[in-house]
Design goal:
The protein is mostly helical. The protein has a domain at 1-44: Arc Repressor Mutant (Orthogonal Bundle), CATH 1.10.1220. The protein is 51% helix and 0% strand. Helix 1 packs across helix 2. It is elongated.
């Protein structure tokens, strides 16, 4: 779902956005959203790593104990 926002942008940047959006036939909102997504991807990439501990398992594991319920 999209959210409505209000933002203040330097006039020179907005002019560049408008020139670009006309060239690629997209709305101003689409161009700004794509730019923000690219910025966030570069600055804060989503991690797909699985976080694990440094611990070592030293006990026993029984599938029967786990699945016999």
């Amino acid at each position: 779902m999209k959210s409505h926002i209000s933002a203040t942008i330097d006039q020179d940047v907005l002019s560049r956005v408008d020139r670009y959006r006309r060239m690629v036939k997209r709305s101003r909102s689409q161009v700004i959203e794509l730019a923000v997504e690219r910025f966030l991807h570069e600055e804060q990439p989503e991690s797909s790593e699985i976080v694990t501990s440094g611990g070592v398992f030293s006990g026993e594991f029984s599938r029967a104990d786990t699945y016999e319920r």
